[in-house]
Every structure is written in structure tokens, then in C-alpha cells.
Amino acid sequence: MARRGVNAPVKPMSDAFAGAPLANAAAWDAYVAAHPDATPFHTRAWCEAITKATGHHGHLVTARDAHGALTGLVPLHHVRSPLFGQALVGSGFAVDGGLLADDAAVADTLATGAADLARALGVPSVELRGGPLPAGEGWRCEGDVYAGFTRDLAADDEAELLAVPRKQRAEVRKALAGDLSVTAGRDAAERRDHYRIYATSVRNLGTPVFPKALFDAVLDAFGEDADILTVRADGRPVASVLSLYWRGTVMPYWGGGTAAARGLRANELMYFALMGHARARGCTRFDFGRSKLGTGPFAYKKNWGFEPRPLTYARWLAPGEAPRDTNPNSAKYRLQVDLWKKLPLWAANRIGPMIARGLG
């Protein structure tokens, strides 16, 4: 997708962001704002929030034309973990992003720059999630792990119900008839309740929870373009989701429920209520996020009437290096996952963030 395309890209450059102001911050903001393929994970708001919350240093690789104007960029976080190893991840804790460029030639330039940066830093791999796929030396594509789920929102609640397949629609109707309430906001109480629910949910799945500072940093960075929706039973929070709003699309990003949520059908109410909440905000699309093929979340999203779209990611590896394994479904971590499910919540919440920050 060429927008200027009159000048060949020059050698890529990189600029670190770790809390200090960037010389090209305004140009970064403007380029992302103008690019039709940009995602929230390309934004300076996201990238600086990740660095602030996790300490992972960021590097912005850019390409410019002969006049010095930006023609492409890719933000990378240097994720380091004693357990999972290290990588340059574009961008950290994101499910999309990757190379953002005026055209294929610029994208190749950025990919070369990312690999060169990894070599200079002694990092064995670069991981890109979304965007154009590089085909240079050392790069390989992986398209058999994740699928994304996105569709248009309906005109109103009744039309939204009819858009849901019959079996799942019946579950939503039962949830709507139940004695549940919904709140939405960004204040300290919503943040506290969301983190408690999310931490419980991921502990029950056998995975470590992200640090609370990560959620706070993203909410603070995105302002009114992020919020929390929580379902409550008798005033007690049982399901909650933190969502991003981007160019008319709502993206439920970090969500979960307690053990009681399933019987109460709180998750069904949560996502249906979020559709209405997003519609009231002017959104027209619902991005249900990504799920691993063959998993329960993958089947759950299909039950809502969302068609899976295969996601292809790209990875660069230095010669002789093996890719990081951060998949909790991997046989390598089966014992650890089973043990983690048995941890008291207080212990999981204390230890988990130190592990999860290395996932990136």
C-alpha cells in the first residue's frame, strides 16, 4: 500500500524509548494516525505503557525517504526472561501490529533493520505479530497457531441477538433474564475488581497473571479509548473485561470470570453487554481477539457466530537459535500448568507477575 512511494527507503534507523522523550515522537504519532493499517499496538501510547509497566526497553525502527519523512516503522520491545529467553517483540504484549509501511519495499527495509538491531543487541530472535510478512534471510512465517475473530456489530440489541447462533442465543437470553448487573468505568474500584477477577481466571487456567501495573498503564495511556466492563451478582464482581476502542472497533482484550461465572452465564452477559456499550460509543465492529486453534476459547467464539481468520506471524532467528516457547499448552509446561492451578491465589498473584512479564 503506497501512499508517497516516490522515494526509495533509506537505511532504517532505531531510537530507544525507555521513559525519555523521543526526538521523533510527534512524527511517530502522526504516521500511525494517518496510516489505514495501523493498530493500537503501533501507537506510542501502547508502547510507552508497556515499557513503563514492565521495564522492557523499547526500540522504534523507522524508515524515511530522501526528504526525511517517515515511510514506515515497527516498535519493538526487548523482552528478557530467565525462563523464556529473550526476543525483540513487535510490540510487547500485543496480538497484532508488526511492520507498518508505505509499501512492500519499505516493509522489507524495516524487517532488515529489526534483524540488524537484534544482532547488534545480541538478541537471538525477532517476533512480529501481524502486518506484512518479511521474506528475507532468517525470517519464517507461522500460520497454524492462532486465529482472529471479528465481525460487524448489529444495529441494536435485538438484531445483535438474532446475529448469534440459536444455541448460544439461548444462553444469552438466560443471562439477560438472570439477576445480574453491569457496570463500566475506569476508576480505582473497577480496576481493583477487574484485576481480582482476571487474576483468578488465569490462575484457574494454570497461567501466571500479568502485573497490575500493566493494566493501569494501558488504561492511563489510552484515556477514554479504554475502559472496564464488569458483571456483578448481588453486587459481587464475577466477570470483567478491559477493552480498547480503536477506529470504530471495540477490542475486549483482557477478560475473565470467576468459577461462579459459568453457572451464572456471566460471560455471556459480559460480551453481549459490551456489544451494546460499544455501539452506544459509536463502534461498528467487534474484535473478539485471537485464540489458539483447537482450544475452548476458539470454539466459544465460533459459537457466537464469529468466523475464524487464520493469523500468520513472522519470526527471525539468528543462525543456530531455536524459537522461544511461550505457549502454555506446550507439553514442556504441562506439569507447571497443573501445579499452578493449585496455588493459593495470593501466591499466584505474588509470583505470577514476575514470570508473566517475560512472556511479552
From TrEMBL:
Pinpoint the BioF2-like acetyltransferase domain residues.
169-302
- A matching Pfam family: Acetyltransf_6
**Name under which the protein is recorded:** FemAB-related protein, PEP-CTERM system-associated
